[in-house]
């Protein structure tokens, strides 16, 4: 199986991404690192363990990482994800321990001790931990197989400001460092996640599984959807973060192209914007593969199959 570290700020869609990864034998989850984002660090660290326990995986190493962005004050998204970050399902408080290691240490040490070129990083939240790991130990950069992340937008505009998507907006300086690190990057921007909508039939397909895990997943999907329906006027809300895991499992579900991506960190108006040279109008180096299209039915099938396995 392909070895991955998931860096996350759960978040209902992060939780679905974790279930997709844990329910897919093609992936080996070496550990989960948490970051402040949708809600503060204590809650994202709790929520990651709630999901592991739900999936029957108390053995997974969960390490708390950065509690705030590199330079900016933390901005959270309780307005989208609820007070706990994981509202919508009624699950017990986790009892599995949080690792005593810092998430950034875990990322650095795992990359330095495992064979070079074998580990894929999957950031699903602000890129603070990934940037800190690269700054702390630059020798990890050539050892990373790939970074596959959810964040940014090309033609779709932002969901936090008119220009910026939440994950990049929260820590634009971290994003800038990550995109400049010379590591192969695949990014799932809003352009693709806004085509992956939680329509009623797709949610019902998961509901039909009829397990404890599917019941929680549907609770999260229904909760998450409520807000986005009002916001986007679409049937169902966008299911962002599992796109990262789905890309690893079934890249044929997606289309995209290699582009130059730069991050705006100066402008008040467009702070956190991902400036994506989709049409190749500059000769700046192509530093990311940017996903643009998705077979949404295939995507939800993949998720349903993984949940059924748990
Ligand atoms: C991203 O922001 C968070 O609210 C979601 O979990 C996702 O990672 C979407 O903009
Ligand atoms: Ca997230």
UniProtKB/TrEMBL annotation:
GO terms for biological process, alphabetical: purine nucleoside catabolic process
Keyword Phosphoprotein included in the entry's annotation: no
Highest taxon listed in the record's lineage: Bacteria
Residue ranges of domain Inosine/uridine-preferring nucleoside hydrolase in the record: 4-300
Pfam family, one: IU_nuc_hydro
Xref: Gene3D superfamilies: Ribonucleoside hydrolase-like
Keywords: Glycosidase, Hydrolase
Record's GO cellular component terms: cytosol
CDD domains xrefs: nuc_hydro_IU_UC_XIUA
Alphabetized GO MF terms: purine nucleosidase activity
PANTHER family, per the entry: INOSINE-URIDINE PREFERRING NUCLEOSIDE HYDROLASE, URIDINE NUCLEOSIDASE
Protein name: Nucleoside hydrolase
Taxonomic source organism: Labrys okinawensis
Taxonomic lineage of the native organism: Bacteria, Pseudomonadati, Pseudomonadota, Alphaproteobacteria, Hyphomicrobiales
